[in-house]
Design brief:
heterodimer; A: alpha+beta; Mth169, Chain: A; B: alpha/beta; Rossmann fold; nine-stranded mixed β-sheet; two-stranded antiparallel sheet
Chain lengths: 81, 232
């Protein structure tokens, strides 16, 4: 079995109002020096019946077609066997 | 003329659309379950508002893979009229049928209130009973209505006259104070390049009867009817 950890983040330059709200909240708790906060999604996938060498391409396709909205989001992933 | 209203698990404006078409506009209309794989001889498909598939992952992200969407895309490519309202607009965006995407409202809040929109283009199947520059009051109800697209796309849709509605003041000024959700250029509704597919965040089906205190939305349904009759 292959385990994939997918991270989806907003592209640079896309405003992240949730991140801003969290940043302000951290500031109001007294944490100084938090210069930026960006929120994203973390998705775990368990894949069976697939060879390690094919996994990369398959996961990339999943990200492009469904998991990420590539208009505003970037994705990266790690594969663990 | 014959309308079809798509129904996904979580659609909640489907009955409102059906009611307006059947009882106010007095035209034929069917509900179409999202698992259907065939479209009958419809003149216009409405993708209604709601929270299809619970907005899981992103609004519209799961719905775009429902079996009926293949047919809807084919129908649109052949020139059929498609109106996506609110979640329906989000589904059109996720499917890539109209350009851009929706982000969370800049306030991070769900907004449910009346707003004003200005008609930017009256030469469409959806707005031909109005005039360019007309201002109508219409309700919005969404958490993800903050329209975004890259600069090139914005330039494209502007040059092709694809911006159909913009949020405005009651006097028709396009200013930030009149922008409820942070949408780029106050965009409230856009169509595809060919003009036969419209996505809009405001809800015309919720303001199509005098008894509700506002029937300005009916002009959109009447425009669709007029356009279709004109083609026969």
């Amino acid at each position: 079995m292959i385990m994939a950890k997918v991270y989806i983040t907003l592209k640079n330059g896309v405003l992240d109002p949730q991140g801003k709200a969290v940043q302000h909240s951290l500031e109001s708790l007294g944490y100084k020096g938090v210069s930026d906060v960006r929120l994203g999604k973390y998705i775990e996938l368990k894949l069976t019946d697939i060879h390690r060498r094919d996994a990369e391409e398959r996961i990339k396709e999943m990200c492009e077609r469904l998991l990420a909205n590539t208009v505003i989001e970037d994705y990266r992933f790690e594969i663990e066997v | 003329m014959k309308f079809g209203v798509l129904v996904f698990p979580g659609s909640n404006c489907d009955h409102d659309c059906y009611h307006v078409i059947k009882h106010v506009l007095k035209e034929d209309v069917d509900f179409i379950w999202h698992k259907e794989e065939r479209l009958l001889d419809y003149d216009c498909i409405i993708i209604p508002g709601g929270f299809s598939f619970g907005d899981y992952l992103r609004p519209g992200a799961i719905s775009k893979f429902s079996p009926i969407m293949k047919e809807v895309i084919r129908f649109g490519k052949e020139g059929g009229l498609i109106l996506g309202i609110c979640n329906g607009f989000q589904i059109l965006l996720e499917s890539g049928i109209v350009q851009g995407t929706m982000m969370k409202n800049r306030s991070l809040r769900f907004i449910c209130k009346d707003v004003y929109i200005r008609i930017e283009d009256s030469n469409t199947p959806f707005t031909n009973q109005m005039k360019r520059g007309d201002i109508i009051k219409i309700p919005i109800a969404h958490a993800d209505g903050n329209y975004f697209a890259d600069e090139e796309t914005i330039r494209d849709i502007e040059e092709n006259h694809q911006i159909v509605f913009r949020y405005s003041t009651s006097n028709g000024e396009i200013i930030d104070e009149a922008n409820p959700n942070g949408s780029l250029q106050n965009i409230a509704g856009i169509c595809n390049k060919e003009g036969n597919i419209l996505g809009m965040m405001p809800h015309p089906e919720r303001c199509s009867e005098k008894i509700l205190g506002n029937d300005s939305g009916l002009m959109i349904f009447k425009s669709i009817l007029k356009w279709t009759e004109g083609k026969r």
